[in-house]
Design brief:
The chain is mainly β. Helices cover 8% and strands 35% of the residues. Pfam families: WD40.
Length: 435
């Protein structure tokens, strides 16, 4: 059984609404509609071709029913005899299973990080009790690899699968990142007992500098790793040379997240507890901490960044309880730090002050802001939805209220799930909500 998406715009502040622009006209566009190039690019990826379109009163373009699209495909109205990729995305992105969730596994410790592989065939979950499990989604969620980590400090802070899905790296609050061969036949992988977990040292010249790694990612060609650390730095590791190739003194506080911007590997995005997103161009002079640009807008630390993969757009999750959408062409060369909130607030054990939810950065450079979820107690992730099935038209995020929130990128739809959809997972109540 599938549930359709329903209309709402309450969870998003579009650039046009925030700035009071009157550039958008006509009844078909809400006041907080994201009037930006990315909205048009998203439509091209996820809207059906024109022959299937229809207009309602006032020239309002209405959604196209899946039934009519199927009839049009069978009648070869497009002349291609099949759906285009945008047609397929339009159909797939309008529906979500609502038959209720089922329990895949139960562990003795809390899950700290989880993510699907790029093709959706594998699901990786890292737990605080030294365990990482890789589930085969297409094989009935059977455990493909059960990894017992080595030299764990506190928790598995991050994992990353190589592009060919043969290797997995895992990090903890240590400068050592470990590599596991997940393509081997054995299901159980106990560090250096049943299988070798190679240790990659991210400390400079094997120094005694102790720091933890919050984020680690493979490059798109699988030849490098990029990592974000608790000592305010970003690191790049050359896997072929088996050595650290770059350290960047990147921020004024913990760097919680880092990723490659696109397939080239030249651009990096980072986010920190200094409230800033930064863009780094490895072709320029960055070893002294000189970023290509800075993106301001968050009022608290940044927990995660996800790139759209085009070297231009990214989203960030912040401890100010917002997700922000960015275009790096709007970045600045310098940062300004407004002090809008007094007092010492710590997201690890305190609720976010209610009055702070209405505060806005006076120099906010983001394209849109998405509110409704809760970012407390841990570094909660956010992602663009898959390009192959949705055209990246949605943003989804975890939340400290045990929920998953899904936002429409251009703020015209939200996911509507009936209240009975509740299920138990790791002894906590999990529901689907939208901001």
């Amino acid at each position: 059984m599938m549930s359709r998406f329903g209309k709402d715009t309450s969870g998003c502040d579009g650039e046009s609404a925030t700035n009071g622009s009157s550039a958008i006209g006509g009844p078909s566009k809400p006041s907080n509609y994201l009037d930006h190039e990315i909205a048009q690019l998203t439509k091209l990826r996820s809207m059906p071709q024109g022959l299937l379109g229809r207009e309602g009163p006032g020239r309002l373009r209405l959604p196209i029913s899946t039934f009519k699209m199927l009839v049009g495909r069978e009648g070869n109205h497009s002349g291609r005899g099949r759906f285009s990729s945008a047609d397929g995305c339009h159909v797939l992105s309008r529906y979500l299973p609502v038959n209720g969730a089922f329990r895949v596994d139960r562990m003795k410790s809390r899950a700290y990080v989880s993510q699907f592989s790029a093709d959706g065939s594998l699901f990786v979950a890292g737990f605080q009790e030294s365990h990482i499990k890789i589930y085969n989604v297409n094989g009935g969620w059977k455990v493909q690899k059960d990894i017992l980590a080595k030299s764990l400090r506190w928790t598995i802070t991050d994992t990353s699968l190589s592009p060919d899905q043969h290797y997995l790296v895992y990090a903890s609050m240590s400068p050592i990142v470990h590599v596991v061969n997940v393509g081997s036949a054995a299901t159980e992988s106990v560090a250096n007992i049943t299988e070798i977990h190679d240790g990659l040292d991210f400390s400079v010249d094997n120094s005694d500098d102790e720091f933890g790694i919050f984020s680690v990612k493979f490059s798109n060609d699988g030849r490098e790793l990029v990592a974000a650390s608790s000592n305010n730095s970003i690191y790049v590791y050359d896997l072929e040379a088996r050595k650290l190739s770059l350290q960047i003194p990147a921020h004024m506080s913990d760097v919680n997240t880092v990723c490659f911007a696109d397939e080239s590997g030249h651009l990096l995005y980072s986010g920190s507890d200094d409230n800033l997103c930064k863009v780094w161009d490895r072709r320029c002079f960055i070893t002294k901490g000189q970023a290509a640009g800075v993106l301001m807008g968050h009022l608290e630390g940044i927990t995660f960044i996800d790139s759209r993969g085009d070297g231009r757009y990214l989203i960030s999750n912040g401890k100010d309880q917002t997700i922000k959408l960015w275009d790096i062409r709007k970045m600045s060369s310098t940062a300004m730090y407004p002090r809008l909130r007094e007092g010492n607030w710590d997201y690890r054990w305190m609720e976010y002050p209610p009055h702070a939810r209405t505060l806005k950065h006076p120099h906010d450079q983001s394209l849109a802001t998405y509110r409704g979820h809760s970012v407390l107690r841990t570094l909660i992730r956010c992602y663009f939805s898959p390009a192959y099935s949705t055209g990246q038209k949605y943003i989804y995020t975890g939340s400290s209220d045990s929920s998953v929130y899904i936002y429409d990128l251009v703020c015209t739809l939200f996911l509507s799930i009936p209240p009975p959809l509740l299920y138990q997972y790791h002894d906590s109540l999990v529901t689907f909500h939208l901001g």
